[in-house]
Amino acid sequence: MTMKEFKIPLSQPDITDLERRYVMEVLQTPNLSLGPKLPEFEKKVSDYVGTRFAVAVNSGTSALHCCIKSFGIGPGDEVITSPFSFIATSNAALFEGAKPVFVDIDPDTYNIDFRQIEEKITERTKAIIPVHVFGLPAEMDAINKIAKKYNLRVLEDAAEAIGAEYKKRKAGSLGDCAVFAFYPNKQITTGEGGIIVTDNESLAALCRSLRNQGRGDTSGWLQHQRLGYNYRLSDINCALGIAQMERLSEILDKRTRVAQWYLEQLHDVPELTTQQIPANCKKSWFVFVVALSPLYSKKSRDEILSHLRKKGIACSNYFSPIHLQPFMAARFGYKEGDFPVTESLSKRTIALPFFANLSKENVRYVTDVLKNSL
Ligand SMILES: *Cc1c(COP(=O)(O)O)cnc(C)c1O
Questions:
Q1: Rounded to two decimals, what is the model's pTM?
Q2: Less Cβ crowding at N or C end of the chain, within 10 Å?
Q3: Domain annotation for the chain: domains and CATH numbers
Q4: What is the pLDDT of residues 270-299, one digit of tens each?
Q5: Ligand 1 environment, Cβ below 6 A
Q6: Phi and psi torsions of 369, nearest 5°
Q7: Catalytic residue positions?
Q8: pLDDT of 86-111, one tens digit each?
Q9: Residue 127: beta bridge partners?
Q10: Buried b or exposed e, range 186-206, using 16+ CB within 10 angstroms
Q11: 224 CA to middle of ligand 1, Å?
Q12: Ligand 1 atom 6, closest CA
């Protein structure tokens, strides 16, 4: 993939002198990994979310994998999740030989339609992985109720949702465990990184072992209790994360302000809709995505994307359905038509440039170009 330079990028991390200072401080010590910044970062996140434990790892994908593994999910098992997500949500189950079973989304919130979950549950179902898509929490009370009834685990994929709230409770504190991700396009970044949050002590201990080659808490460097991975997050990354956590509310406020500018410019454009936010949820803005009305074809959406790019505006469709990714379709026989709401939405979405430091002038420019192209 060649990266074209756009005048206005799709996303951009919000890095200040505080982040640079904290990273430099680590570089003045010999503790570049498994040092003091790791527990310090973990505590910042668990305190913020309100969980007892946090286990930082080297990506959101690794965090999902550790959770799946900690649930004891394996070959032949099934997990229920959304086809309208990033591929990692489903891949985490595939890593352990389990099958992702999809449930279509709600057309307004873009989150898993909880009304359709029960009909997909079988003897082999072990977990539900709701995704808080674009930073909007899924219907967690309904999902937890179903999970309880069928004795299933709940893993929140909150990779896009740090700071989001469901009924005044923080995303990440609503299931058995949750993950956040810190790639540079996320609300806050550690360069690469992810974290597991949970109240379950044994699950946290297992994730800690899995990220560190299966070592036990007290066993030596060359003693391995179980099959593990190198999913460690370095202290350099953690220092960056600590600064970002200290600035989290500032960053989220800036992102909310940018989203408001977009909404002001676009609310009266009849061709466009945006994700509907239920009254009991607070969204943490991850991306700014508009959906064209169903009168538009995928082809005309793609023409609009090209037009925006020609005008120096980075943009993207968001997402491509997971069940239609070539390897998924080949392996499980999924086809066009299986999840119509997801498919219809995916053909009509446009993610516009969105980051904390996007200026009001640039929002105006992007929305003017978009309106002209409709
Ligand atoms: C970003 C993301 C992930 C994965 O995070 P990485 O850090 O890129 O591995 C997982 N799920 C969702 C929904 C994401 O958006």
A1: 0.97
A2: N
A3: 17-246 (3.40.640.10), 248-373 (3.90.1150.10)
A4: 999 999 999 999 999 999 999 999 999 999
A5: 59-61, 85-86, 88-89, 131, 157, 159-160, 181, 183, 194
A6: -65, -40
A7: 186
A8: 999 999 999 999 999 999 999 999 99
A9: 79, 153
A10: bbbbbbbbbbbbbebeebbeb
A11: 28
A12: 60
